[in-house]
Amino acid sequence: MAAERPGGPQDPVLHEPPSDQDQLRDNPWGTLQTEEYATVILRRVVEFLGIPNDVPAGVAKRMERQQVLYDGEHHYDVILGEQALYTNVGGPAVMSGQMERLLRDIDLPSVTLGVLPTTAEVDAVPFPGFNMYGDERARYELVSTGVDITDPDELALRNKAFTALRTAACYEDAAKALISKALTFWSNA
Predict the structure, then answer these.
(1) CA-wise closest residue to 17 among 109, 157, 137, 125
(2) What pLDDT, on the 0 to 100 scale, is given for residue 188?
(3) Residue 78's beta-bridge partner residues?
(4) Are 178 and 170 in contact (CB under 8 A)?
(5) d(Cα 142, Cα 17) in Å, to the nearest integer?
(6) Residue 21: its pLDDT value, please?
(7) How many angstroms separate the CA atoms of 170 and 120, rounded?
(8) CB atoms inside a 10 Å sphere around CB 66
(9) CB 147 within 8 A of CB 154
(10) Under a CB-based contact definition with an 8 Å cutoff, are residues 145 and 111 in contact?
């Protein structure tokens, strides 16, 4: 599943015209991350890849990007795998804060947040997570780079896969219940 892409000149959230984005996540999308969660994730990227430590700048850019949630011009359709609610990033305090953030943001008009239950049956073949940018491009994030898909037939398959995920995901109260269950877990950890 997709890892968050770094901010920068190529960042579609900051530099493309507003359009619906469909995203499958195995960790909370950077635009929905708390500062603490983002710091841990970016610190791990720096340490793993052995790249220069620009974590404070990366976190600041990620926090700046969150303004798109409130500008009234963007909408994001995000599906988060339930496992992401339990994958330990930074310990119980960081995870509790992240669950509280998801519970707060799930009701934003700019976000449709679904949670794909661990036990959900999905009518699609297994595939890595991806981001959809309208009907023009899909992006797969790899360990140190990303791959863009623009072939119309391939994009149609990604749309079909996302529809299958959307059908299997929980929304609104059911999604809140799964996130709340994870919050209880982390609060008692």
Answers:
(1) 137
(2) 97
(3) 23, 113
(4) yes
(5) 24
(6) 61
(7) 9
(8) 16
(9) no
(10) no
pTM across the whole model: 0.85
Within 13 Å and on the Cβ side, how many CA atoms surround 172?
Answer: 0
pLDDT for the residue numbered 29:
86
Q: How far is CA 66 from the centre of its chain?
A: 12
What lies within 8 Å, CB to CB, of 19 at 6+ separation is 133, 134
* H-helix or E-strand spanning residue 22: strand 21-25
SS3 73: coil
**Strand, helix or coil at 136?**
coil
Q: Which pLDDT score is estimated for 10? A: 38
Q: Which regions in the chain score pLDDT beneath 50?
A: 1-17
Reported as half-sphere exposure (CB side, CA atoms, 13 A), residue 122 has a value of 21
Going by C-alpha positions, the residue among 89, 119, 106 that lies closest to residue 186 is 89
What are the tokens at 71?
A: 């500008």
The torsion region of residue 48 among left (phi > 0), alpha (psi -120 to 50) and beta comes to alpha
Taking each helix axis from N to C terminus, what angle separates 92-105 and 35-49, rounded to the nearest 10 degrees?
120
Residue for token digits 């799930």?
Answer: 106
Q: Give the residue among 160, 109, 156 at the shortest CA–CA distance from 136.
A: 156
